[in-house]
Amino acid sequence: HLVQVRERIRINGQPISKELFSKYFWLVYNRLEETKDPVHASMPAYFRFLTIMAFHVFLQEKVDLAVVEVGIGGAYDCTNIIRAPVVCGVSSLGIDHTSILGDTMEKIAWQKGGIFKPGVPAFTVVQPERPLEVLRDRAQERECLLYLCPELDAFEEGRRVLELGLAGTHQRSNAALALQLARTWLQRRGCRGKVGGQGRGGRTPLWPLGSQRGTRSPPGLGELKEVPSGTELAGRPVPLAPAFRPTDAMIQGLRDTEWLGRTQVLPRGPVTWYLDGAHTTSSVQACVRWFRQAALNQDKPHDGSEVRVLLFNATGDRDMAALLKLLL
Hints:
Number of helices: 10
Strand content: 5-15%
Family: Belongs to the folylpolyglutamate synthase family.
Keywords: ATP-binding, Ligase, Magnesium, Metal-binding, Nucleotide-binding, One-carbon metabolism
Protein name: tetrahydrofolate synthase
Shape: globular
Catalytic activity: (6S)-5,6,7,8-tetrahydrofolyl-(gamma-L-Glu)(n) + L-glutamate + ATP = (6S)-5,6,7,8-tetrahydrofolyl-(gamma-L-Glu)(n+1) + ADP + phosphate + H(+)
Radius of gyration: 22 Å
EC number: 6.3.2.17
């Protein structure tokens, strides 16, 4: 979180209130304290505790849909206790948390593929060849259908360009992934052309995509066909998901997305701050491209009255010098 811990548990995009956080924190804390094993007494660690608490909040507040982000990795992350999610997504892989996840992209891909579940569709974006093969193998061993998202351009064909609320070209693959995840959720819920949930408390009817007991898919949502195991499409190790026409709500969602502290520009008098959370080689490279685009393309006042500050932050065992070198 950037400012306060409540940012980690949000409902309808807003961090839960101090009152709700306090109420559920003590409820969960006291229940665990009362029931812990007296011999090997220990409470869950920080992130694990907040994960348990988040699940409790979502159940008690009866949310229709929970988007759960993995903490680190996947296979052994505490968020991975969800046995039957509606859909899974793996975004662009990078080298990070090497002491926990391994020091190669293949090892990291193995960990990330640990969130795949039998019969639950999964999507990923364009990845280097070997890590993509690892994801494919993990999907096969877990009896999960893995699809590659088409580029965002495919969703724009013959239509207007999709506007993104988040700056930087790297956000286009994230947007394509978000569209596929949203569409799959809608299909699995048998929604007819509207965006929203039916049913509460996380009960999810699981029937095959595109055949929801007589219900129709929202207009423009193409069907995902099951691809026989081992099939290669046009030399791809992973079949390509079909593009579709985004609904008005999806278009608005992409446009209105905000992520404070991520490619954020804050003008404050003579100083303009550029904030980003990049901390891996690939994300710092993306940050450099964004900063050059956002800052250096604008003419600087000749009197030197404007100061531009790119705020760079790195913690833990990361190689600061290597990351700073990319900013030179």
